[in-house]
Design goal:
Elements (H helix, E strand, L loop, with lengths): L4 H11 L5 H15 L3 H8 L4 H13 L18 H4 L3 H8 L25 H8 L3 H9 L3
Helix pairs in contact: 1-3, 2-3, 2-4, 3-4
Length: 144
């Protein structure tokens, strides 16, 4: 039975939204392997997916890495924690959230030492995550 590219497009548009990133890659790779020569190009067009992604899925199947896994991405993927990039981050955050500083918005501006934190609340939140629960509650209560 011959499968047209339109049928594949319909299949992928129905199935892929139900899958996570890893499962999409593996299903596309399996489709490419099933079609044989030229399958990667056909599947990448039908699934509107990068050829490299389809190739990676096919390689995962060939290498036996397509076994069920709770992980979507490989170990070590994603951004590194800010605390790993800047070991002094907790000390700087501790200075900002010290009992003398709580509730005083001008305290950080009056510091002799400039605190180098990346912009945004993400860095502050990551630093607080490493603090005891009472410190986190106090920071939340004081609006930091």
């Amino acid at each position: 039975m011959e499968v047209t590219e339109d049928q594949l497009t319909e299949f992928f548009s129905t199935v892929l939204p139900l899958l996570d990133e890893r499962q999409r890659r593996v299903v596309a790779g399996a489709g490419a392997k099933m079609l044989g020569r030229g399958g990667v190009s056909i599947v990448s067009r039908a699934a509107t997916m990068s050829r490299n992604t389809v190739l990676t899925g096919a390689k995962e199947i060939t290498a036996g890495e397509a076994a069920p896994s709770p992980r979507v991405r490989r170990e070590g993927g994603g951004r590194k924690a800010l605390i790993d990039k800047d070991p002094d981050l907790l000390l700087e955050l501790d200075d900002l959230v010290s009992p003398d500083a709580r509730g005083d918005p001008m305290f950080a501006a009056s510091l002799d030492v400039q605190v180098h934190l990346p912009p945004g609340r993400g860095a502050f939140g990551q630093g607080l995550r490493h603090q005891p629960a009472d410190r986190r509650r106090a920071a939340r209560r004081d609006g930091l």
